[in-house]
Design goal:
Elements: H1 12-19, E1 32-33, H2 45-52, H3 68-82, E2 92-95, H4 98-109, E3 118-122, H5 127-135, E4 139-143, E5 145-146, E6 152-153, H6 160-165, E7 166-172, H7 184-197, E8 200-204, H8 220-226, E9 235-240, H9 241-245, E10 253-257, H10 259-272, H11 278-288, H12 292-312, E11 326-330, H13 335-346, E12 348-349, E13 351-352, E14 369-373, H14 378-395
Parallel strand pairs: 1-12, 3-4, 3-7, 7-8, 8-9
Antiparallel strand pairs: 2-10, 5-6, 9-10, 11-14, 13-14
Helix pairs in contact: 2-11, 3-11, 4-5, 4-10, 12-14
Length: 403
């Protein structure tokens, strides 16, 4: 067996299952899960129809690079969304969802023979980053977050000695679980560090189409364009249809950026066997070519956040994220015990924040927080918020002071 497998930690949802073992939820309440970030809004019918209309593609071996129609649709969407010009032939590659591609990129770019090979990622973080680093033979380094800036990553606090060893940096903006979005000055800092030390930036932006303000979140490709880096040097952008179009089972997304990196990644994926089926490609073309369903999806999330936050803010430290569909809320007491007690008493599932982070300087930055995924229908989210608020009031009868 590969000895690196032994370095992998249990996945957060496995830890959650063990935490909830032996708990019998109160039969007074129906079950509501805010634990897993799995979109629950209906898949648009036109995407289903496009998939069904191309089932003859099941009789064909797909190519790793995908059809030119799909790569063109992805490039055109990026041009509309970020005002960037991508060459569909050399700067775009379809992937089977962002998760597998985020993992595979580390296997492509990390040279484990170099002493101290390091992969930097946020903390809290999406656990694929850590697993990808470990299985590529690198050491993960967890960059601290600043709670005073809505848990944005403090990239400037990463020591220069770490950057010197870094081969890959995972950026997640909007962030999971915090929803923080990186501004242009942070992108400028990371690009300068990448130029100095030669590391690759993997920009995970799968939550980019769920936002609440008047302007969409800044993305890595867009930041590069604004800073005159139109070759997207050392940058690979990742996105997915899962959250944007409510098709997590379709397993469809794309990567884009530095042509040399896309070329190397394509070579790796040819051996890895990661080609997207023709029927999925056709459905993906339809999805990337339409924005009306995305605007409707965004409106549903805005409705949920607007309804839920007034119920929770009197009893919890929680705020509207910059983007995404998570709430990152402080708990009265231990986050794991809060999750267990909430399930037992009110039959609501939430994910302990400590399961999404690692110890750093003697502290876990996720401890004392929970992640709530507002993926259920509006009425279920509101009902869950009422139960969570009631549980918080029982644990801490004194109301929070008004902000």
């Amino acid at each position: 067996m590969n000895p690196r497998l032994d370095r992998l930690q249990p996945y957060p949802f496995e830890k959650l299952r063990l935490l909830h073992q032996g708990v019998t939820p109160s039969p007074q309440w129906s079950a509501i899960s805010l634990g897993i970030g799995e979109p629950k809004h209906p898949t648009p019918p036109f995407i289903q129809q496009a998939l069904a209309a191309h089932l003859d593609g099941l009789a064909v071996y797909p190519s790793t690079v995908g059809s030119l129609d799909l790569r063109t649709a992805c490039a055109q969407w990026a041009q509309r969304r970020y005002r960037v010009n991508l060459d569909p032939q050399s700067q775009v590659l379809p992937v089977n969802g962002s998760r597998e591609a985020l993992f595979a990129l580390a296997q492509t770019v990390v040279d484990a023979s170099r002493e101290g090979a390091t992969v930097v990622c946020p903390n809290p973080f999406y656990q694929i980053y850590e697993g990808a680093a470990l299985l590529a033979g690198a050491q993960p380094y967890f960059a601290a977050v600043d709670a005073q800036r809505n848990f944005a990553v403090d990239w400037a606090a990463v020591p220069e000695s770490v950057w010197q060893r870094t081969q890959l940096l995972y950026v997640c903006s909007p962030g999971n679980p915090t929803g923080a979005v990186m501004p242009l000055d942070e992108w400028k800092l990371l690009f300068e560090l990448s130029d100095r030390h030669g590391f690759v930036i993997a920009s995970d932006e799968c939550y980019s189409e769920i936002w609440f303000g008047s302007q969409p979140p800044l993305g890595g490709l867009e930041a590069a364009r604004q800073l005159g880096r139109t070759d997207f040097r050392n940058l690979v952008y990742f996105t997915s249809l899962s959250k944007r179009s409510n098709v997590p089972g379709l397993r469809s997304g794309f990567v884009a950026g530095d042509a040399a990196l896309i070329h190397a990644f394509t070579r790796y994926r040819t051996y890895h066997g990661s080609a997207m089926g023709p029927a999925v490609q056709a459905a993906s073309v339809a999805a990337w070519s339409d924005e009306a369903h995305v605007e409707h999806n965004r409106a549903l999330y805005r409705e949920k956040f607007a309804a839920v936050l007034p119920l929770l803010q009197p009893v919890m430290d929680v705020r509207l994220p910059d983007a995404g569909f998570y709430l990152w809320a402080a708990t009265p007491g231990d986050d794991a015990q809060f999750s267990r007690g909430l399930l037992e008493k009110y039959n609501v599932t939430v994910l302990p924040g400590s399961y999404l982070a690692r110890e750093q300087g003697g502290a876990n930055p996720g401890r004392g927080r929970i992640r709530m995924a507002l993926v259920a229908p509006v009425d279920e989210c509101v009902e869950a918020a009422r139960r969570i608020a009631a549980y918080c009031s029982e644990l801490n009868p004194s109301p929070r002071p008004s902000p």
